Every structure is written in C-alpha cells, then in structure tokens.
# Entry
Amino acid sequence: MAEAYSRGADDAPLLEETIGANLDRTVAEHGERDALISCQQDLHYTWSELVAEVDRVARGLIAAGLRQGDRVGIWSPNCAEWTLVQYATARLGVILVNINPAYRTSELEYAVRQSGCRMLIAAPAFKTSDYRGMVAEVRDRLPALEQVVFLEGEDWDALLAGGESVDPAQVGERQATLTPQDPINIQYTSGTTGYPKGATLTHRNILNNGFFVGEGVRYTAEDRVCIPVPFYHCFGMVMGNLACSSHGAAMVIPAPAFEPEATLEAVAGTRCTSLYGVPTMFIAELDHPRFDEFDLTSLRTGIMAGSPCPVEVMKRVIDRMHMSEVGICYGMTETSPVSTQTAVDDPIAKRVGTVGRVGQHLEVKVADPESGETVQRGEPGELCTRGYSVMTGYWEDPERTDEAIDVDHWMHTGDLATMDDDGYLNIVGRIKDLVIRGGENVYPREVEEFLYTHPEIADVQVIGVPDERYGEELMAWIIPRGRTELTEAGVREYCQGKIAHYKVPRYVKFVDAFPMTVTGKVQKFKMRETAVQELDLGVAASAETA
# Structure
C-alpha cells in the first residue's frame, strides 16, 4: 500500500508576475471583450474600460497619500467598485484587507486595528447593516484609521476627483517596483474560538491560484462567469475575479449578496457559461419555484466549493442546470484557497464523490494528527498542503502562524481526509467534528451523504452531542423539501438496515436554515451549542418539539 502523498503536475509554468502586470497582458489581448457586468447596478465594462476605471481609483489612492505596504480595508457586499478597488490596490502594492460584510462593531474594530488600516472603503448600508453608524461608533478607537470612504456618494466621487491631478504614469511606475512575492491581501478567517486570524497572501499566491482554478475548468476569453459568492472571501475574489482576469473571461455580478432568483436571472440574461456557489446556494436555485422558467443552457461548467458537496446535489446540478463540466474545489483561505480540484474529464464517480486531486505545483499528504507521519492510502488523517499557495503567515501573529505551518512548510488544514489509489481525496470531516460514539469513530459527512438520498430531505447537517452512556450521540439537523410529513421516527426508520446502528441519529431537529457564515459555511459549533442547551433543558430535539 502506498503512502497518502501526491505531487501535482507542472505542465504549465507558474505566473511569475504581479496581478497588475497580468491584468495589463489581458487588456492587451482582449481589450474590447466583456470584462465586468454588474447586473443590479446596470454596469458593463470591456477590459479596456475596466482598466481605465481601475487606474482612476489607483490615482485617487495615490492622491490620498497611500503607499506600497499600506493597508486599505474594504467592507462591502459585492459590487463593481469592490472589483475596481481590488485591482487598483494590487497595481500600487497597497495591501487590501477584506472585511466580512456580516461583521458588527467589535469585529470591525478588531480587523481594522489588527491590520493597521489607514483607509477604510465601505458601503453606506446594506439590508439591516448600517455601516455608517457602525464606523462612527468605533472610529475614535482607531487612531491609525485616517480616512473613511463610503461608496455610492460624495466620498467615492471625491476620491476619484482627487486622483485627477495625479499623472497617470505614476500608476505604472509604482507597479513596476512590485514583486510577485509582495503581500497584497489580508483575509480574516472565521475562527470558532478566539479572534479571527489575518491570512496574509501575496500576488504569487492568489494570482496563480486563480489562474490554475480557471485552467481546471478550461476557461477562455469566451467564458462568462456568474459570481454570486462574496468577494470578501477567496471564492469570490480569487477563484472568481482572478480566474477571469487571468483568462480574459467576463466577471458577472448578479447581486450584492446571494439571491437565488437574481442568480438565475443573471445566468440566463447574460448567457453565463459558468456558475459558482456553495452547496446551499445550488440547492436554493434548484428548489426555486421559478427554476424552470430560466434558460440555463448556456452553462457548461462551474465550481461547487466552500463546504462538503453532497453527491445528490452534485448530480442534480449536472442534470438540471446543464453543468456537465462542473468541478469541485477544496481548500482554505490560508492556501489561497484551492489545493485540490476535480477535472472536467474525470469519471463521474470521482467528480461527484471526491474533491479531486492535488493542483499544479502543489503537494498534499494525509498525516496522522498525533504523530505527523504520513498514513497509508485509504486511511483517514489530517490533510496537509505545501507549495506556492501557502500564505506567508497570519498578519503580525507568529505564534498562531507556527501552529498552522510546520518547520517543513506544510500547512495543516484541520480537515480529515482519505486518499485513494489514484490520488483522489475525500474530505471525511473536521478533526474537531469527528464523533466518537461508544468507541466507534463516526464521520458526520458519511451520515449526511446517506440522508441526502431521502427524497424529502433538502439539506442536512450531522453533529455530535454529549451523552452519558456513549460519550457522544449523533444529531441530524434537517431542512425538509417542501411540505412534508417527515418525522423523527420516519428518519430513523429510513436509516434502519441501511447504515450501521451506531450511525443512526438519536436526535433529529427540523429547521428552516442552518447557522452559517457569510461565505456559506455551516457553523456546526453553534448547532452544538443550541443542541446542548435544548437537551439540558429537557427539550427533545425531535420532530414533535423542534
């Protein structure tokens, strides 16, 4: 039996250039092709028009006194301006700090202070979030924050107007001083405990990751990519924007935040060839009452990522959304983000049942979490990644950096995985999510995949909850499909004789939604907290009481 280690191909060379230089090459080759379409803003740029707008923003940042290495925060849902700021800061070597749109005052204050932002660019408001009010509440406690620029108003106009006095040549001159190894982006990871950590990424990290993700789904300048996932996260700004700009493909923004109907309208209206999303997004689109009204035949590919992708959902996406070449990506913010990806010509079983193989110029291994030794193929262990994609570290946090990246430069993901004989990886859970019931190791992902086969279950998450007799017991949180008479007893009956008795959930809770991060990751720790509270109160989390 071989060790669970694999090294990616190196067929295509790494892009040893900055994001700005790569953008210039795309403009030179595809200048009059569509670059960016923001549907709800009714904005439409060619690559030549886009770079002109990017440079207007860059000149405004120069006039505001920003220099290479300075940090600028961006706190906004998806919009064209987000993308302009992303590329403008990259051209100047200004480090863009992505701030989660769901953050509130304490989280905003922490991110801006910890990264040392000199400027914050923010939406005035979105839905129930009053960004102006929250900034006002914390600004006096942030002495390094010199300027706040709100989008969609006089602040943004003033920033652009300030740049009119700056010689356009200055943008190119500053870009020429940069190297691919320079840090260009800080993204705060949503930790379940403690403060978020600022993963620090370079041009080389994220430009190459976006490029190779695009290569994996065979992007060309003919493609139009619908990006309903948030730009603040790598899924949007790297796998989305940078995958497009490195191939000349068009970026399509359907709405400021995910809306299933707006996404379907954008795909149909702009004839998108690719669609991104986390599994819950695809489920919402497939189950939308108007789904059959939209012509999705232009789609050929896309990416499902962000959380484990249920096999049954993947099959529906291929069959009903015409995404015959859809791929699954796996990774984490700290690895820019993608480490493994399925290929468009992989066997269907591999494309729906694994997270693919290691990406180009990368290495992966599955290691024993205790000893650190590489396990044999087929055995579960912690997935580790090494190569160009690994972050430089957590911003000004060497201690937590050393906890995540070992002396041999392996990034420890905290995810449990297995590798098969062909090098395909399967994520079986988080190390922290592993349930040990009466001495039996139970991987929630396995139970979830089985329950997805129930025709009346739209979505499901399985967690472990404390139990006096067995140490832990299984609990399934279920979102039913439409009107249903499904009960706890019915769920358990469906499991009997089909999965081992110790994998049958003792508790079932029917819900309308799961607690989630803005990027679509299910927060199982919050589910556990809720379950423990309910069970301690004597509330049986079942169909009759939930």
About this structure: The first helix runs from residue 19 to 30. Residues 116 and 188 are 13 Å apart (CA to CA). The longest strand covers residues 457-467. The two ends are 47 Å apart (CA to CA).
